[in-house]
Design a protein that fits this description.
Largest sheet: 7 strands, antiparallel
Mean pLDDT: 82
Oligomer: single chain
Structural class: alpha+beta
Helix content: 25-40%
Number of strands: 9
Strand content: 15-25%
Number of helices: 6
């Protein structure tokens, strides 16, 4: 499993060298955008809308828009210094709490944690302590230049870290438009709805749920592939000014020939012309 981050998780005076591995993966089918006429893949280039120039990474800086069209420019060195200052205190478990106190709306991404060199015993200690206390650890960690809150818990005998949003990143439910304040339903309607819920209540078995759209899309792609309904992108021919080898060779020979000197006019004719002038 690919390691995407290395660091140390600490609680109290206990330090645990760990590695992070993505616990989930995106199974979305990636479709490329093609030019309808020639089926060539479309490239998305970074072009300045004013200069019309295509830019490389060295010509791009970060900026924060404080007003329409007005930016504060931040140099990469300044951002790197901020990252270093934050990373020193990024992985400490600050509190332990009950998992049920955290609403699922706060959860973001999940990562498996494995012990790094020298961390086996401390890893096992934290796992055992969390299991028996039925608590989770709340930590602060820096990943991809962003400081995040994270919950550390046990999942199938493995420590799992789930990043969670800060409170100001969760929008207020009270701002959702057109939500009725009162439930204008009868007692009979409520009882019928609850009866339906009881009939559909079951244990969570994730294996029985599938992505129907993804399955159908793959089936469509496979049917086109096996039916040979394929298109080939046109390849741009390399620019070459030499269209004919023999012509190129002849041009080289002609270029190498010494230029002929213009024939001299007879001296007599030259004197006569001078007199006329």
């Amino acid at each position: 499993m690919h390691t995407m981050w290395k660091g140390t998780i600490s609680f109290g005076l206990v330090n645990i060298p760990i590695k992070l591995h993505a616990a989930t993966e995106d199974k979305d089918i990636k479709l490329r955008s093609l030019h309808k006429k020639c089926h060539s893949p479309i490239r998305y280039e970074k072009v300045c809308p004013v200069c019309g120039e295509e830019l490389d990474a060295k010509e791009i800086v970060k900026g924060y828009e404080i007003a329409k069209g007005k930016f504060v420019v931040l140099e990469e060195e300044e951002l790197e210094e901020l990252r270093k200052q934050t990373e020193e205190k990024a992985v400490e478990i600050m509190d332990f709490l009950d998992m049920r106190e955290i609403d699922p709306v706060y959860f973001n991404r999940s990562y498996y944690m494995s012990p790094n060199e020298g961390g086996l015993k401390a890893y096992g200690l934290l796992r055992k302590a969390l299991t028996e206390s039925e608590k989770v650890g709340l930590a602060r960690i820096v990943m991809r230049s962003k400081e995040q809150l994270a919950v550390i818990r046990v999942y199938e005998n493995t420590l799992l870290m789930e990043t969670i949003h800060y409170p100001d990143e969760v929008r207020r439910a009270s701002d959702v438009p057109n939500v009725p304040q009162d439930d204008e339903v009868s007692k009979k309607e409520i009882e019928t709805a609850i009866l339906l819920i009881d009939q559909l209540t079951t244990s969570f078995e994730p294996e029985k749920y599938t992505d129907a759209y993804r399955s159908n899309l793959m089936a469509l792609i496979e049917s086109k592939r096996t039916g040979k309904k394929l298109v080939t992108a046109k390849v741009k021919e390399p620019e070459n000014n030499v269209t004919d080898l023999m012509a190129a060779l002849q041009a080289s020979i002609d270029r190498a020939k010494p230029a002929k000197k213009p024939a001299k006019k007879p001296k007599k004719a030259a004197k006569t012309k001078a007199k006329e002038v």
